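$ ./design --mode recover --in tokens.txt
reading tokens...
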């Protein structure tokens, strides 16, 4: 028995020695791994490919400050009406020249660029467009740790020492091929970040880094221990938090429409060479691969039904739906799908050719008034959303400024009429620079005849009684 007992004790001693040895080896490996991690994540890099990064690294280590947000104003001072007003329909007098709508030359189907190259290692679907690009996958090891200023510095240093140049080259190539504006380019970088990283903090840090490298003035900050991005915009972005740095305004888009005014802990300096502002205006539509759908809308006027059929590109609709609340000029001056416009113009031509100008313009006004259901943005989306004219054709419901953008676009294109948006505290109508009698407003020395796409069955020159004696708050000029 004693022999067995001695054997068990010897075995336990041997097991203990083995466990101690295993622990020491494991601890050594862990220590080595942790030291490697610290080296990878630390801010002690000494060799920088770009002198600007070394300079900026110093800024990131400097004393950060807390900044308080200011909420940008809402589009309207008063809530918009929840329902439309109606008037008894009356035929308009036939005045003006005879109309002959000229149909633009139908463009051939646009080229769908192939951007999925086999030798590239990151693939995504971007608004229906297959895209591939080269990414240094070692950056996936970058972590926002610790969750403070030092963690941001560490993340920056991992990326700045990576082979990020290939990604920048491919992003610039995609931006050029697809004719992306800066908002679309931001969405592209954001989507790449979502493929690379699971956590939002790291997605935002990657987006910040790449946008800075692309020349955009974007700041990174901390709010409630999480990463936020502040985008410089020359024009106001509504319904979100705004931060001031000298004369420049930066917007926190992650709090868009949420009603929050978070304090942000960040730095004053900008990334060297980052001089580009976030630009929401659209000079050309993005060249996405098309996803074409058909739609027919109709309206009745004096007992006759008028159907209008057209197609729309769902990928383009999805892109426009991402927009924050930009200034009205962005919406009123945005381009329109040539294909969709051609179809609408062709559909209207059969009704309008040979009519006098007053009757033809009135027909388009009645189309916008009655082919779509009125519903306020709050009821439809839960927040204010100004639609591009192209979106108004897609959605079954719309409110005053959505109808105004569509009507202004159509009369400008169909009849080559000068138009302005006429904005009141709680409403939007259109002014037409045409020599006809009726309710009108003046902008400078120019007289504009009122046309209200929300005043159902009203003719051009008929303003809602409420607004006849009110001076408009603002005019939106169309280029």
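writing sequence...
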């Amino acid at each position: 028995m004693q022999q067995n007992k001695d054997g068990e004790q010897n075995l336990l001693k041997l097991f203990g020695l083995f466990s101690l040895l295993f622990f020491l080896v494991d601890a050594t490996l862990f220590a080595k791994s942790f030291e490697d991690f610290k080296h990878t994540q630390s801010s002690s890099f000494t060799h920088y490919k770009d002198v600007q990064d070394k300079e900026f690294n110093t800024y990131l280590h400097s004393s950060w400050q807390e900044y308080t947000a200011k909420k940008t104003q809402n589009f309207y001072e008063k809530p918009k009406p929840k329902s439309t007003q109606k008037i008894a329909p009356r035929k308009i007098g036939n005045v003006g020249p005879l109309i002959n709508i000229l149909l633009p030359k139908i463009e051939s189907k646009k080229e769908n660029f192939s951007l999925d190259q086999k030798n590239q290692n990151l693939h995504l679907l971007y608004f229906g467009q297959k895209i591939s690009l080269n990414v240094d996958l070692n950056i996936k090891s970058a972590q926002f740790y610790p969750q403070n200023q030092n963690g941001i510095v560490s993340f920056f240093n991992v990326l700045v020492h990576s082979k990020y140049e290939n990604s920048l080259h491919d992003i610039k190539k995609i931006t050029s091929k697809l004719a992306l504006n800066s908002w679309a380019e931001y969405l592209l970088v954001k989507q790449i970040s979502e493929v690379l990283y699971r956590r939002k903090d790291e997605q935002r840090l990657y987006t910040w880094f790449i946008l800075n490298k692309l020349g955009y003035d974007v700041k990174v900050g901390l709010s409630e221990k999480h990463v936020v991005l502040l985008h410089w915009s020359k024009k106001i972005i509504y319904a979100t938090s705004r931060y001031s740095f000298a004369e420049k305004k930066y917007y926190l888009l992650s709090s868009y429409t949420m009603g929050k005014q978070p304090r942000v802990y960040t730095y004053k300096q900008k990334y060297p060479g980052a001089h580009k502002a976030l630009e929401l205006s659209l000079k050309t539509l993005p060249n996405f691969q098309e996803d074409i759908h058909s739609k027919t809308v109709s309206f009745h006027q004096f007992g006759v039904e008028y159907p209008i059929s057209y197609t729309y590109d769902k990928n383009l609709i999805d892109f426009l739906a991402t927009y924050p609340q930009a200034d009205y000029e962005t919406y009123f001056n945005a381009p329109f799908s040539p294909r969709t416009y051609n179809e609408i113009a062709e559909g209207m031509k059969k009704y309008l050719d040979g009519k006098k100008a007053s009757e033809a313009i009135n027909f388009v006004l009645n189309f916008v008034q009655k082919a779509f259901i009125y519903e306020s943005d709050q009821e439809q989306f839960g927040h204010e959303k100004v639609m591009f004219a192209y979106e108004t054709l897609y959605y079954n419901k719309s409110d005053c400024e959505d109808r105004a953008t569509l009507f202004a676009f159509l009369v400008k294109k169909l009849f080559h009429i000068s138009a302005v948006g006429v904005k009141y505290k709680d409403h939007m109508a259109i002014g037409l620079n045409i020599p006809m009698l009726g309710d009108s407003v003046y902008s400078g020395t120019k007289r504009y005849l009122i046309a209200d796409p929300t005043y159902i069955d009203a003719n051009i020159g008929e303003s809602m009684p409420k607004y006849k004696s009110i001076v408009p708050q603002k005019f939106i000029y169309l280029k």
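exit 0
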